[in-house]
Amino acid sequence: MIRRRGFSLFELVVSLGLISILVGVFLERAVYYQEQAEKAAMEQVAMDIRSSVNLRAAELVLDNRFDQLRGLATGNPMDLLVRKPQNYLGVLPSSAPEGVESGNWYFDNKTKEIVYYVDLGRYFTPDSRGEKRVAWHVVLVSGARGETQPQWARFELVAPYRWF
Questions:
Q1: Residue 104: CA count within 13 A, CB half-sphere
Q2: By the 8 A CB rule, do 85 and 45 touch?
Q3: 114: buried, middle or exposed (CB in 10 Å: 19+, 13-18, 0-12)?
Q4: Higher pLDDT, 147 or 33
Q5: pLDDT tens-digit series, residues 66-124
Q6: Residue-by-residue DSSP string for 2-38
């Protein structure tokens, strides 16, 4: 009696097919979770900036320096952070700079916006210009009694975005 050892050709093809399906599913999930991580990192930086703007606004309001709130709207909110993100490019002069790589932050000196260009944007809906970017700015808030001087400043999205 002769015993066969190893796989038949059919068993080998079935095994390779199953392995390739599992690898494909794993890679799809890995890309999905990478994009989730990018979104979470972007939102964390935005929350850090929001907190910094709120703290600076509170400091100015408590010191009765309402006139200095306007500086928050014209300045770079990234300067309020103790440590800037590693992927922060700095202040750029125009709203559509050439050569900005995806996955980076910058401050648009023309529009006074903090902008993030999305890197892994498979599940990101581009903005009205067709770009995969998200922008925030500092908005001055007037008081309830119609004061001419701003009474607060807050960091908010320029336009809503859809990611996932």
A1: 14
A2: yes
A3: buried
A4: 33
A5: 999 999 999 999 999 999 999 999 999 876 667 789 999 999 999 999 999 999 999 99
A6: PPP-S--HHHHHHHHHHHHHHHHHHHHHHHHHHHHHH
The per-residue DSSP string of 82-137 comes to SS--TTEEEEESSSS-TTPPTT-EEEETTTTEEEEE-SS-TTEEP-TTS--EEEEE
Q: What does the pLDDT read at residue 148?
A: 79
- How far apart are the C-alpha atoms of 140 and 58, rounded to whole Å? 13
DSSP character for 159? S
Q: What is the mean pLDDT of residues 115-141?
A: 95
Question: How far is it, in rounded angstroms, from Cα 9 to Cα 39?
Answer: 45
